[in-house]
Specification:
Number of strands: 3
Number of helices: 21
Strand content: under 5%
Shape: elongated
Distance between the termini: 47 Å
Order of helices and strands: EEEHHHHHHHHHHHHHHHHHHHHH
Strand order of the largest sheet: 1-3-2
Amino acid sequence: MFLIPRRPIERFQLPDRIFTCGSLYLNRSRFHIFPQFTPEGLSNSSSISTFAAALIGFLSRSHGNAPCCRQFSASVPSTRRYIPRTVRKRINKRAREAAKPVLNEELFHRAVSQLPPRFTHEELHNAIVLQDDPLVCMELFNWASQQHRFKHNVLTFHITIQKLGAAKMYEEMDVIVNQVLAIPSIATEPLFNTMIYYFTQARKLVRAVHIYKVMSGSMKLDCRPSIRTYNILFSALLSRRQNPYINQMYMETIRCLYKQMVDDGVEPDLFTLNCMIKGYVMSLHVNDALRIFHQMGVVYNCQPNAYSFDYLIHGLCAQGRTKNAREFYGMMKEKALLPSSKTYNSLASSFAIEGEIDEAVECLWEMIETRRMVDFITYRTILNEMSRRRMDGSAMRLLMELKEKKVVDRYAYSKLLSELQCSSWK
């Protein structure tokens, strides 16, 4: 039954030519038509097809033997049959299993034939390195495990995990990782770092943190977490996150890891401090990022680079602290550091919003001269602010100059021009 708001209606019996009727409120015995949905309102083909589809859907249930249903059946497109979610999951699982690569038996037997009868760990390592097929590498590893008087060491485990991780065969890699964890005596810091790296690439952060905890609790000194271990975890926790609330949640984990690193006597490097600055800025804790920045070169033996300034300037502009952002921009120029596109766009937009149109335009041309990519939002912000301050002539000249120098394409120019004309009419 189709629900239509109540309005004055006209009752009539079922007509012979059903396709001439308007939009209907259908009952089993009678049709009710609204005056505003008369045939004149169904002038276009889309309205007629929608009406016909709705009408036939009802008549197929209540008047299945009516000749009008046979009249419309050829013109109405058939709907797709609904597939339950469980069936779709089974279909997708079978499709993934069918898409899995098949082992090249010939290549595997050729690699086995090139190994001597009593091969060493180095010879097996070199044989796996030469193979490009990850299935052949895994089959070589499993075949060597079944050989008499042979046990894998850190070389064979490491290269196999690298091959499987690079091929994104994370389930097979996890099996090899479990074998490594069962033999604590062969674990090393580079091997564990490789495990953590590929688990973070697979977005299995819980598994990566578990490997880190195994490293922290190890009694071997050459297996303890190093600065590279922490940098891999920091980079993974900060990547692919755009929501500030999610960043704030992950930032608590990063802060705990950073505190654990300092307590263990591991001195942070420039990459680590930049990760902390970036994390604080992404989680909207700009003051904490400034605290880390001012400790660089004083507490820690490393000087800030262009990335350190870029993160801070973007965070300050996002909070409307344009004055502080200008100070850091001047410090970058003093150190002969070139800002990134993100920094230039943030500064230009902030200058325009604050009413400093000349500085915004100067920053825009500087960005173009240094071949940095200008965001469309930056163009629109500067032009809109110029128009809002009754500088329509200057805004139009700037837009024409951008077009003459082929800085903006035709589509961007037409869109900016239309927005500029609309704002000037207001």
